[in-house]
Amino acid sequence: MFAMRYKMIGLKIAYYRKMRGYTQGQLAGKIGISTTYLGQIERGNNGKSYSLETLLSIAVGLDIDVNLLLSSSENI
Length: 76
What we know:
- The chain is mainly α.
- 67% of the residues lie in helices and 0% in strands.
- It has a single domain (2-68), classed as lambda repressor-like DNA-binding domains (434 Repressor (Amino-terminal Domain)), CATH 1.10.260.40.
- α1 crosses α3 (35-43), α2 (24-31) crosses α3 (35-43) and α2 crosses α4.
- The radius of gyration is 11 Å and the shape is globular.
């Protein structure tokens, strides 16, 4: 159940990142995490949960409301 949730959040992050024209490296640098870690989050397979603080940083970096990432809607 949680794995699917992380996967959906990751897909949304990748979608909004691409819509903003950022590479993974650009967004990762902007929010202070590694490109590898951002890639793992986007794939939903980082093997561990990430903090709400990280998710908020990503949302701020993408200039979106964090609720867009957390909503249960699968539409992106």
